[in-house]
Design goal:
two-stranded parallel sheet; 7 strands; alpha/beta; Nucleotidyltransferase, domain 5; 129 residues; 18% strand; 5-stranded mixed beta sheet
Length: 129
């Protein structure tokens, strides 16, 4: 009778659990971007998609993904960026303390660039029963 070879998988399972924990901890941080206080609203969560994230901070500064741009540069280059990325998914993250006028200017520039719809990012609102 030949001896059977047993593979000890304990260390493999340990490594797998450590990787799983690391991914679970870092996944929420991957959204990242420019720190803003999002407005609260009741809504349904959307499935995460690839797209362009435009942020307006409380001082009215504009960021495309995480790169700060002036309003004039944003207006001039946004159409080309949308065409280059080949995506119609555009998400606007606006600080709740941002000026309404700043947000409207950015939305108007997006519309002028040919973006038909923009996803507005908010935090979940706690509904009190």
């Amino acid at each position: 009778m030949l001896p059977t070879a047993d593979i000890n998988v304990t260390s493999l399972v340990d490594v797998a659990f450590v990787l799983l924990i690391i991914f679970m901890i870092t996944a929420p941080m991957m959204q990242g971007g420019v720190p803003v206080e999002l407005p609260k609203a009741e809504g349904r969560p959307l499935a995460p998609r690839e797209g362009i994230i435009v942020t307006v901070d409380r001082r009215g500064q504009i960021y495309v993904d995480q790169t700060r741009v002036s309003y004039d540069d944003f207006r001039a280059a946004f159409r080309a960026l949308v065409a280059k990325r080949g995506t119609s998914n555009v998400y606007l993250r606006s600080d709740r303390r941002a000026s309404y006028g700043d947000v409207v200017r950015v939305l108007a520039a997006m519309q002028a660039a040919g973006v038909a719809s923009v996803g507005l990012t908010t935090e979940d609102e706690e509904v009190v029963p």
